[in-house]
Amino acid sequence: MDWTPLLSTLTGAVIGIAATLIADRNRWRREEARHALEVRREVYTEYVSALKAAGEEIRAVALGDHMSESARDAAVREAVRGTGIYTASERLWLVGPPQVVEAGNEAFHRLRAIRDAYARGVAVGSADDAPLIERRRKAMAQMRRLMREDLGIGPLGIE
């Protein structure tokens, strides 16, 4: 009895099954990578948007009239809390790579420095405000650059 046709058939079947399994695994990995990228894109968008909203809110509060220093302090802090920045920050810490998390944290701390200055009574647009705004702008630009890099998007070149 000649075993060659049987062995050839079995070898072909094993190769076919192995190739199918490898192709399925590769497809699964691509889909997982694509999903992870989409999750990071959503988290980055949420975080940047929350940082921007918090900045606008504290600026608006700082431009308003307040009866006392404690009322101004409370209003500025509440303005930040209402933007969802803390939830967005936690999401960033969960899914972002270390360099993006570090840059996001730096941008958050620059925002907090402005919040604290406005809470103390620093006037919007004053000489004391300008360096704080500049440090925040630089931190935001660095964070966006790293986020874009992580997402595989080239630099804007305008910041």
TrEMBL record:
Q: Per its UniProt entry, which superkingdom is the organism in?
A: Bacteria
Which residue spans traverse the membrane?
Answer: 6-24
User: Is Transmembrane set as a keyword in this record?
Assistant: yes
- What protein name is recorded for this chain? Uncharacterized protein
Query: Which key words tag this protein in UniProt?
Result: Membrane, Transmembrane, Transmembrane helix
